[in-house]
Amino acid sequence: MQIVRDFDYVDQANRGASVAIGNFDGVHLGHQSVIDIARREGQAVNAPLGVLTFEPHPREFFAPDAPPFRLMGSEARAHRLEKLGVEKLYELNFNAAMAALSPHDFARNVIANGLGLRHVVVGADFCFGKGRAGDARDLERFGRDMGFGVTIAELIEGKKGQVSSTAIRQALSDGRPRDAAAMLGHWHRIEGPVVGGEQRGRELGYPTTNMSIAGLHPPRFGVYAVLVDVLDGPHAGHYHGAASLGVRPMFNGEVPNLETFIFDFSGDLYGADLSIALIDYLRPEATFDSLDAFIAQMDADCAQARDILGSL
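Above: the chain's sequence. Below: its structure in token form.
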């Protein structure tokens, strides 16, 4: 998959794609539907499949001090899009100049002239341009004038209502990872490098990998049954585990992180990139009267997680 970050200087080989446009936070079923339409439209005109998105997320640009809301970072999004067969990822810098473009100028400067796109697909609720002044019908009109095709995709309904990043965030906040997965079309994952910890788990017989969740929407704090993908290094592969997400109240922690105990594993994972899939919420964070009671609860958590993961 080719990643293009500047619409002003684009190689000819990266022009002329059929793209889905949006933020694609989570790459959920609604996003996948839009991408599938772009794929079909591209096949009809022999154009590569692309996605046009922005980094940082426009919401982060306009409200940098707001609480973290993203379901995935840019690298995790790129990994997921590549798995869907996206050939061209136009990950454009969302800055003051981009934010100032009128809907007409965005269509002309970015879509038509800059990237030379053949076809674009957007959701029915799509808005674009300065002040979100343009909508999907405006884009359709611009496409007729500027020579690119436009398809407006209907919004996807799930069993419990409209599939959206907002609904997925709520499911995760409630500790309902399976409901989130039903809307995503895949398990919700936290991806990133393993960072150094205080090694208390090793002392207790439960060595853990530590990962930051900075910048991400925090799921409900507590203990989860998880699937673990080690993405690189000598231990690359798939594993089962149990993870604690939160501030570690037993040890007076303050900064939320993700600590994962990988079952039946021994080895050094510092610096390796991991992808942790949240499968089931087991219990909230808690403090215990003694380390023995804490270890007994971890034993019970791991046994429950093994049962859950063994039945997948």
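The mean pLDDT is 93.
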